[in-house]
Amino acid sequence: MTRPFRFGVVAPIYTDLPTWLDRARRIADSGYSTLLMPDFPLLQPAPGPVLATVAALTDLRVGSWVYASPLRPSWLTAWEAHSLSLMTGGRFEMGIGTGRPGIEDELRDRGIPGVPPPSERLASIRETVTALRDFDGPDRHTPVAMAVSGPKARALAAEFADTVTFPLGTQPRAEIASLTANFRAAGTIELALAIPIIGDYVAPHMAPPGTDPAPFHAADAVIALPDDPAAAAEEIQRRREELGFSYFVFGADYADRFAPLVAKLTGT
Question: Is 121 left (phi over 0), alpha (psi -120 to 50) or beta?
């Protein structure tokens, strides 16, 4: 089954609020599916209030990209996710993962004692999704997007996730095809690809500060796209055909430039 394209935008707040809200409205008018907020405590406003505001002002879906599971108790994340699903009329998608590179130092900086090992972080994700399903009950299903890497995380995603994304770098496409193969065979889970690099641009909060785009373009990395929208559209179609990705996530600074591409590929 070939899934239809959809496109999301990671939109951290770097301007005054009226300017940022104007951007959110433009994103909503440009054919994008989802506005996403990163989970960077103290560096950005908390995702919940921001996403609820966007959902009230636009018809966009909204989501966390992604909650870092060690930063808060499982029940608290689940409660917030269910609350957002309820208050947005079912337009919230909970993205969750075990934490970005360097999360250990961030936990120490936040005064969170006892940095949990990866196995406990996966267990926390399971607890979070289980609690979310309990909060939702039989009449609601909050979609879950999981960021996964190793085999245990992929197995957990196969059990619980609606959408799966992978933390990728310069891996060969054959290796990425192997990562996506089982999910593609099952056909029940959407595959998402975050694109932090477009031309010489690196999206904030989607790649480490100081990332050099050149090695990614030289390696034909799937997380990089050319600056030209027509060439980017060809690459996006290629990545769906060869690897199964149908949900593409950009940084907000390219949302306006790529709006015609999104309209073309989504038929809007």
Answer: alpha
